[in-house]
Amino acid sequence: MPRRPRLTTSLVLGAALVLGITESHEAFAAPPGPDVVAVAVLAVKSDEALDQAEALTAALRTAVQLSKGWSLGEANQSLEFLALKMKCAEPIDAACETRIADVIKADRYLWAVVDFDKTRKSVVGSVNFFVRGKGTSTADVSFSASATKPDKLVPTATDAFAKVTGGAPQGGVQVSTGGIAGQLYVDERPLGAIPPAGATIQLPVGMHTITVKAPGHDDASMRVQVQPLGTVVVGLTLVARSEGPPVDGRMVGGFVSLGLGAGLAGLGTWAAIDVNAVRNDAGFQTYRDQFSQNDDVCAAAQAGTAPLVSKPGAEPPASVVSLCDRASRDEMLQAIAFPLAAVATGLGGYLLGTSSLAKANDEVPDRTSAWTVVPMVGPQRQTLTVRYTF
What is the DSSP string of 316-372? Predict the structure, then answer.
């Protein structure tokens, strides 16, 4: 008699402990709604490992509550009781699973069978996930026989639940692009090519950004809410990218050649002006007048030849040598720059005359040609103006 109260108290405390563990995890459970899928958990069946089966039952219910996208169904019946009631065969077959689903009014439920192994040091069995119309998936479980508390079995139950369900529930997204092939991205992650006919993909429940990229088109994106086990239709419109006309290489080359020609002509002109400045230098002219007209004054200054006559104001031979070198350099620049300027200008004129600008001028009625030559003759001035119209 004295042991009975203590046993009753122990059972009450044990039940309170199990309930307390379950209630502590319910705070994390997803409430029933359109974004979660309900799963019922039947009490685990076992012939001998009764405490372990009870602990695994509580752990499986906790695992469902803690798993994203799932919620715990209301069925709390025992698999063993239902199997006897339905007169199910051993092992339980698909027909019995369907009858159980009808009785507990659930489209998805977990059921498990465990027992001691031969050494009685471990508990082994299987966790099964029934889905109406799709069949059953199974995962083996094994844990220590000493695990008789639900919190010790939550990791095992969570792993088994993830295996039989495949993870969080998913929903379908049907993507159409208006007949344009491209590359599909979900939340900026590439998923591969999408054909012109579109594609249907499976995604985890929640908000996602669907993007399609196609050559010659602007990217098209849409934010969608994926519902579990449903399919949302996403229609993306890919707008052709507006691109400017292609670059006319002849036109670009023509202007570059004309610019180069103008630069070379300017260099040659500067060299010619500098040569003229050397020739008109007063000190250089005075030095040159000290020799005869047939003498090379630059060579004479270089050799230090004495002049025929001595005139005041003449540059010293060293300065004359420097002026001669400068004039020689400028003459070489003219010899190079002016021919190259003529070639560059002629090439630029040819390229511009055969470019798209010139062709556009030809296609417009009553429009002047690209090149226009306008002569002007007057009593005091004669000019020739060359214009290029674009």
Answer: PHHHHHHHHHHHHHHHHHHHHHHHHHHHHHHHHHHHHHTSHHHHHHHHSTT---SEE
Amino acid 23: pLDDT: 38
Cβ atoms within 10 A of the Cβ of 231, count? 12
14 has a pLDDT exceeding 80: no
Which pLDDT tens digit goes with each residue over 304-319?
A: 888 888 888 888 888 8
Listed residue (99, 100, 106, 55) closest to 79, CA to CA: 100
Residues 195 and 98 in one domain: no
Rounded to whole angstroms, the Cα distance separating 60 from 81 reads 18
**DSSP letters along 59-104, please?**
HHHHHHHHSTTEEE-S---BHHHHHHHTT--SS--HHHHHHHHHHH
pLDDT at 213: 95
Of the residues 166, 183, 211, the one at which a domain ends: 166
Whether residues 132 and 191 fall in one domain? no
Task: Give me the number of domains the chain comprises.
Answer: 3
The pTM is what? 0.52
| 220 shares its domain with 134 | no
Lowest mean pLDDT among 12-16, 220-224, 341-345, 370-374: 12-16
Domain of 333, in residue numbers = 249-388
Are 110 and 119 in contact, with CB atoms under 8 Å apart?
no
Judge contact between 110 and 39, C-beta under 8 A.
yes
User: pLDDT at residue 379 above 50?
Assistant: no
- Say whether pLDDT at 256 is over 70: yes
Alpha carbons 142 and 96: distance in angstroms, whole number: 25
Rounded to whole angstroms, the Cα distance separating 111 from 80 reads: 10
Q: Is residue 241 part of a domain?
A: no
Supply φ then ψ for residue 93, to 5 degrees: -100, 180
- Any domain includes 12: no
**Domain co-membership, 361 together with 263:** yes
